[in-house]
Design goal:
By secondary structure, the protein is an all-alpha fold. It folds into three domains: 3-42, no CATH class; 75-149, Cytochrome c-like domain (Cytochrome Bc1 Complex, Chain D, domain 2, Orthogonal Bundle); 162-243, Cytochrome c-like domain (Cytochrome Bc1 Complex, Chain D, domain 2), CATH 1.10.760.10. It has helices at residues 3-35, 50-56, 75-87, 100-107, 111-120, 136-149, 167-183, 196-199, 207-216, 231-243. The radius of gyration is 22 Å and the shape is elongated. The structure holds heme C (2 copies).
Length: 246
Amino acid sequence: MSGSNASAAKSVVGLILTAIVGIPVFIYLVVKLFTSGSGIDLGSNTMTGEAVAARLQPIGSVKIVDSAPPGQRSGKSVYEAICFSCHATGLAGAPKLGDAATWTARIGKGFETLAKHAIEGFNAMPARGGAPDLTDDEVKRAVAFMGNAAGAKFTEPPVAAGAAADPATKGKEIYASLCINCHGTGVAGAPKLGDKAAWGPRLKDGADSAIAIGIKGLNAMPPKGGYTGSDDEFKAAALYMISQAK
Ligand code: HEC
Ligand code: HEC
């Protein structure tokens, strides 16, 4: 590439960068101008309000945590895989890990409220941090982990132990003995194992919700897929399939 082409390319890149950074700031300022009578107040909560939320909405993105068996991840590992991307730096007004100043008032809302906000979403905070495969308990563990890092005394919901010590292995076995008959090839519209596009919309309300639907049955999916063992075992099989949807 000649020198002049290179500098032309650079100025195009510069223009694009200016547009990427400039347009949202411009929109924010315009929104601010029309929504506030008292001029521009950059220090207020509007930075975490709708304007920011709209820009941060994960558009069709499905993040999947890939360490540790599904459903069994600790608060720390969920934090490190998902939540850190905003909560490590305080992106968009996210309360920073270990920063008591930004956490104390939130901790005062109580664990149940914080967990509900983390599961359902709260302003610029996306539901489940944008990772729909997380179970409610996994999100709660991450909330406890983050709260405790700022001085709270929350208890992480326990990770199943003992007989169900390795639900991932059990789940895989049940899948291979039964669910594979339909989910292996996609019989009658069954979402195929490992098919992210087929699983994505089913996981939009979280893994727990998809599992509850599977337990009840849905169209050609018989209740529990015809499995005669416990709900927990069915859940392990479903979580195995969900963990492969990436
Ligand atoms: C895309 C960025 C982003 C990710 C990823 C993210 N958060 Fe947040 N989170 C935020 C923002 C921004 C806020 C502040 C929202 C507000 O107060 O308006 C927030 C606030 C919270 C709060 C406080 C809610 C309240 O009621 O004050 C909790 C709890 C929380 N997040 C948990 C989590 C957990 C758990 C994860 C990972 C599973 C996570 N977040 C991932 C951006 C994020
Ligand atoms: C006889 C075929 C069949 C078997 C066996 C089967 N499934 Fe399904 N399953 C389906 C079909 C078909 C759907 C899609 C139903 C629809 O959306 O109309 C489905 C959907 C699902 C869903 C998604 C529910 C939702 O929210 O959309 C889960 C979870 C699931 N199956 C789990 C399992 C598990 C775990 C097993 C094994 C224990 C299993 N299935 C065995 C046919 C089957």
